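Table S7 (text form). Paired inputs.
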Amino acid sequence: MLSRIAESLYWIGRYLERADNTARILEVEVQTNLENPPKGFKGTTRWSRNGNTDRPLSVKSAIVEAEYLADLSLSLGHPTSILSSIVAARENARGAREVISSELWECLNVTQNQMMLSRFEGDALSLHQFFQFTQFAKERVALAYGIVESTMTRDDAWHFFSIGVLIERIDMTVRLIGTRDLESEDIFGWITTLKSCSAYQAFIRAYGGVGMDRRSVLEFLVLDRGFPRSIYFALNGVGTALESLIDGNQAALRRDMAFRLLGKLKGDVEYLESEDLATELGVHLNRIQVGTGELSNAISSRFFHQDELQQWRIERN
């Protein structure tokens, strides 16, 4: 497969997953501020769940320390907004038309067009419109994944797409966990985190609703072997795909930089004690995120001959 096609498939997966998880992060942040307004919160009454949601709301003046909220949803000027991610996924799909199904191409086209119609002038965005938009984003990404699942042959194209999805999922799951107060034992906050990962029902099935606390939630999202959005599960998926793409013996795999970095990261997570995870959460989250960035760079260098992955976050003074 041409490296250009492989790279396009990889980034289709990454951008779709990024759009989905960005929508989840924004929903968590807004909902948390609605339920527990922080000190200095502006516009509390206008964001009230019982208020007038039809009146335009300036997001930049409503959420303290969150002026980027509007930029991360509908802005085309922000490279990591939900809309920008969908547009980028569609553009990459245009360059890989020969290996994706017409159904996926149509899905991405319709999603982009509908989101473009949802754009608003300036920063005005009502609460009702905001939640409508993020819900639409999550539903359309789920539809795209369903189409890929049912129409793509499990060949190299499938593996590159899957690696893109899983690499982004690891990184964004870390970010979703990081939206919480990492030291907080408030179970309602951690339930919100589970719901933002579509993990609440799976968690209840796994733990039976008994002993729900911060430690058990972290174990589930980071270490669980069976939940598809856990970090460990995603790392396993990347390993399976890389083995198929490298298609070599064990000696060749050991020499491959991407596979070695994956093994190191997977080992760090696999043998992580739940007690260490609970007591040094910030340290371990940072280590996983840095390791994921290094793995992404190694995959790009190995298969796409690209420069290092551009940092997607924008630091604010």
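Next pair, protein 2 of 2.
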Amino acid sequence: MHAVSDAASCPLNWRLFLPQEWADDAVRRRRTGVPEDVGHREKWRLALDALDALDALDALDVLDEPAGWGLVPPVVVADAGYGQNADFRAGLAEREIRYVVGICSDITVQPHEATPSTPAWSGSGRRPVPR
């Protein structure tokens, strides 16, 4: 998580991502010193956790140090790795945080009030699908 402006970028908060295969590998965990109580957590959840820690004045992070600064970003910008995830976008919406995220061309985007409709089938060719 970085605070950015036209002139600078400053890291504010970060989380270590532990892939599932590392979380399940006791030998690898022991060799690298990964604590027993640390497990796999999806990247989008880690991002929401980091946002929550920035906002919560009394929050404690994994090092038991004060984490929250009472900061709420005016907008979150993320790449398609996060933007494709509906749960991540919903988490931002629940927190009332505006966002601009990348998406891939296979995702459908519609205004909130849009209602899918299916054109009438002419009787020949493929049946139409909702759009």
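Confidence is low (pLDDT under 50) at residues 58-63.
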